[in-house]
Give the backbone structure.
Amino acid sequence: MLEVAGIDVRFEGVVALDGVSLTVRANQIVGVIGPNGAGKTTLFNAVSRFVSPAGGTITYKGQSLLGVPAWRLAHMGIARTLQGLGLWPTLTVLENVVAGAPSRTRLASDLLALPGADRRTAALRDEALVNLGELGVADRASGYPGALPHGIQKRVIIARALMAHPSLLLLDEPASGLSATDVNDLIDVLRSLRTRMAIALVEHHVDMVMAVSDRITVLNLGQVIASGTPAEIRANSDVANAYLGQKVAHA
Amino acid sequence: MRLFVIYTVDGITNGAVYAAVALALVMIWRATRIINYAQGAMAMFTTYIALIVIRHGAPYWLGFVIALAAGLVIGAATERILVRPVESRPPLNAVILSLGVLILLEAIAPMLFGGQTQSFPTPVSNIDLVAGGTTLDFSPFDLFTVGAVLVAMLLLFLVFQRTTLGLRMRAAAFNPEIARILGIRVGRMLTLGWGLAALLGALAGMLAAPSVYLYPSNMDEVLVFGFTGAIIGGLESPVGAVAGAVGVGLALSYVSGYIGSDLAPLGGFVILIVVLMLRPQGLFSFGTQRQV
């Protein structure tokens, strides 16, 4: 599905990613973990075409993504959420989700407000409601996102990402700021989504990643230091030193 | 009392034209954070195009449609070719750029169209209506002016509020990064936003020309008054801009009627300066948060 091979990303001479590889297969959940500044979000940004790697390749369904403009990814079935949520405060929850549909714009009919435009908008609204229902927040559709608890907002942005009918879903810190109950709900949601798409997630919440991922890649200082099943990662001493060790020390 | 009615009607009619300009400025501001000082000059240009079409024997309405279409094209082309490269630069670059376009258009116009003042036709009579022996204080063209601006506003409202295209344009203006992730062609939305704004400006040009006549800088004052209206409205709010512009239209009409018509342009600048000094965020703006 997604094949990132040996990419290098540099910002003004600082090496952010150094020969990083990541493979995500269909119906697989891949977790990317690592300490702050390890390059996790930069890796996602490279896949999302926000930054261009200096070297290496990124292919999706066998097609290179290098040179593909960022906006086209959603049309190719790659959806993403951002840490910063990015919900529009003056649009309702439903409108926020509808705006996530990367359907082709029909300039003429929308500009002339033809009946066809209304029908398409109605179809998108129905679909958005289905997605909100799947995330268990359909009852919030008419509210404004600013008034919602953080956990609900996080579900809304996943519902919005689903409007792209993704075959690959990139989630940037989906568990950050969630309560323990919310995290368990999120794990259920991800397992249910896995039946129809591949999911890659960048996350600080190691327990959640361990629980939900099929494969885990560990980044530290821009390099992959380990990659494998949750059990392998748990047993890896490099990982314990670089990352998990810190956690234990704090705990 | 009679005079007051006349001045009020004049004020609303002129205010409608300023409102179209103000709304165009607000649309461009919201899309790209740029004040388009060339808005008036673009409208002057498209009005000249309409005049040429009409002088060649075409009906007024063909000239009208061509002017609006030319506005769409000129606005879109300006964004795509000139504004795009400075969008990620400091705001001053865009200010200089739009002033440059203003100067350029006003310098080219006399070469292409001649510099002398020309009269401009109206689609309907410009003479006050008479009903039952009494002269009403508005002409069919006044009604057309107010009606055309209202229809244009209603259409824009429907596009922005009721269609997914409008939703995308708002999304692209508010948060380009998220918009791109969601598959929105942000650049295209901004181009379209400029095009629609210039179309609205072209409408203002067509409506203003019969009374201010047509010459290369004929829209300068209209731009200042429209800009004043937009500032009063807080630059972010389409409703505020329209209300502000109509307010400016009324104020100037009263100044010109009761005090002296020479003072009207001065009055516009006084209002602008006072508003900028006392309430730079606008009278209708209640905070600094950006609206989608």
Notes: The longest helix of chain B spans residues 2-32. The interface with chain A takes residues 155, 158-159, 162-168, 170-171, 174-175, 177-186, 192, 289, 291-292 of chain B (CB under 8 Å). Confidence is low (pLDDT under 50) at residues 287-292 of chain B.
